[in-house]
Write a structure and sequence with these properties.
Elements: H1 2-16, E1 19-20, E2 24-30, E3 41-48, E4 51-59, E5 65-68, E6 72-73, E7 78-84, E8 87-93, E9 102-106, E10 108-110, E11 117-127, E12 131-142, E13 146-148, E14 156-159, E15 169-173, E16 180-182, E17 185-186, E18 192-195, E19 202-213, E20 219-223, E21 235-239, E22 244-246, E23 250-255, E24 262-266, E25 271-277, H2 310-330, H3 333-336
Parallel strand pairs: 2-9, 10-13, 11-21
Antiparallel strand pairs: 1-6, 2-5, 3-4, 3-7, 7-8, 11-12, 12-19, 14-18, 15-16, 15-19, 17-18, 20-25, 21-24, 22-25, 23-24
């Protein structure tokens, strides 16, 4: 029994020990020219006890090649991040994926807003007893092979009603990436804000949340804005089931079958005003819908990295335990007799 008990410290060390990763090598490819790109600064980032930690840095050689030696980490995905012409390009390497011959793609940059277009623009209006919660989504499509990067103009522009008090939560998700918090900056136009963010080839989604106080009668005032030279689609308003929107600049399109939300086109080219009747939310009747949480951190239940390898670790534990029991049985005095 003592021998079996003594196996547990060894098992714990195996479970908690750092995971050894293979060396990483690959090539930086310029997606605009189709050729290897030399001189690109690259960082290798991995999750650690203090969050995301930079493990190493390197620069692509004359043939665009790069390499990171094997290292140890607490586990989880690895992130390659290359900076080219002031724009960061990421490549996620999840556990089990090949780490040899990795291709990190970068693109030439342009300041012309014509490189990308707003393919979808939607405003969800969720009125409650004391405020109107607004969730705005802007999807920008870049069908070319050049990144649109212009911090002066911004990736997108939007109108923020005065009642929001300048408070807005912004999240941006680039092509194949994860949603990241971003800051909105005021422009020279009153009530118009911009989000500096590079629009890479593919689809980039901007999600905005804010709230304005409720009034009697209940009314929402907005404005159609954009970046000069950037193609834009029609702005659409979405009202949850039980909420009705009325206005001279609205065209009712119909209801979404699943949520029963009503969809409207905004026909105005600038300011518009909407009368709001009823209360509701697309979040299943949550009374807190629309609550201003722009200053509050979002909480997500995330399991420790060890859970990602739980099946392997359990199998390893039972294997070691079985081996211990076999050793105990073979060395048992009862069996010797």
């Amino acid at each position: 029994m003592r021998a079996a008990i003594s196996l547990w410290p060894a098992l714990a060390m195996l479970v908690l020990a750092p995971v050894a990763f293979s060396a990483i090598d690959g090539t930086v490819i310029n997606g605009t020219s189709g050729k290897p790109e030399p001189g690109v600064a690259i960082m290798l980032v991995r999750p650690g006890q203090k969050g995301m930690e930079t493990i190493g840095t390197t620069t692509s050689d004359a043939q665009g090649h790069f390499k990171f030696d094997a290292a140890e980490s607490e586990g989880g995905p690895q992130l390659l991040q290359g900076n080219y012409k002031g724009v960061n390009y990421n490549k996620m390497l999840t556990p089990g994926t090949p780490t040899n011959g990795v291709e990190l793609k970068v693109f030439e940059a342009s300041k012309s807003p014509a490189e990308a277009k707003v393919s979808q623009h939607m405003l969800v209006i969720e009125p409650s007893a004391n405020q109107i919660g607004v969730s705005e989504t802007i999807i920008v499509q870049n069908d070319g092979n050049t990144t649109y990067s212009n911090d002066e103009l911004g990736g997108v522009r939007f109108y923020l009603p005065a009642g929001a008090g300048g408070k807005v939560g912004v999240s941006v998700k680039g092509p194949g990436g994860m949603p990241l918090p971003r800051s909105a900056k005021e422009t020279e136009e009153k009530g118009v804000f911009k989000v500096p963010f590079a629009i890479k080839p593919g689809e980039t989604e901007f999600d905005l949340t804010y709230a304005v106080p409720a009034a009697d009668p209940l009314k929402f005032e907005g404005r159609v804005v954009g970046i000069k030279g950037q193609p834009a689609g029609t702005l659409r308003l979405v009202a949850p089931n039980g909420v009705t929107l009325e206005g001279a600049d609205l065209k009712k399109l119909g209801q979404e079958p699943k949520s029963l939300a009503t969809i409207y086109d905004v026909t105005a080219a600038g300011p518009f005003s909407v009368n709001v009747q009823g209360m509701g939310s697309l979040r299943g009747g949550d009374d807190s819908a629309g609550t201003d949480t722009s200053d509050a951190p979002q909480i997500e239940a995330v399991k420790p990295p060890v859970y990602r390898y739980l099946a392997v670790l359990i199998g390893l534990a039972f294997g070691i335990l079985g081996l211990g029991l076999l050793i105990l049985y073979r060395s048992s005095p009862v069996r010797a007799e």
